[in-house]
Amino acid sequence: MYAVVEISGKQFKVEEGRFIDADLLSPNSGETSLTFDKVALISKDGQVTVGSPFIKGAQVKTTILKNFKDKKIIVFKQKPKKGTRLKQGHRQQYTRLMVDSIVA
């Protein structure tokens, strides 16, 4: 069984018992689980249900495992013959979510 769910503007294919890395989510203080109701597709035992745009009553329940940063990316820009150089670094922040259940 798997589902396609929208989390902060991006779509993820999720399965029960697996984790996903989504952009940094800021839940309310003390909250350790999140529920997403923007489910676009559910596949169970070969039966596929597609929403338009989302399936009513469907939910994906997840548990927050940790927040972490990805590897650093170096952005270097240079203009030739001008002596202009710009070096920037960036580390994207993610939230790791464990998929507990998919409710159709």
Describe this structure in words.
With 104 residues, the protein is mainly β. It has a domain at 2-65 and 97-103. The protein is 0% helix and 64% strand. It contains no helices and 10 strands. It has strands at 2-7, 10-15, 19-23, 33-36, 39-44, 47-50, 59-69, 73-79, 84-90, 93-103. The strands form 3 sheets. Strands 2-1-5-6 form a 4-stranded antiparallel β-sheet, with no helix packed on it. Strands 3-10-7-4 form a 4-stranded antiparallel β-sheet, with no helix packed on it. Strands 8-9 form a two-stranded antiparallel sheet. Strand 8 (73-79) and strand 9 form a beta hairpin. The relative contact order is 0.30. The mean pLDDT is 93.
Question: Which properties best describe this structure?
Answer:
four-stranded antiparallel β-sheet, elongated, mainly beta
SSE-based structural type: mainly beta
Task: Please state the overall shape, judged from the principal axes of the Cα atoms.
Answer: elongated
The total of helices stands at 0
Q: How are strands sequenced across the largest beta sheet?
A: 2-1-5-6
Strand content: over 45%
* Poorly predicted ranges: none
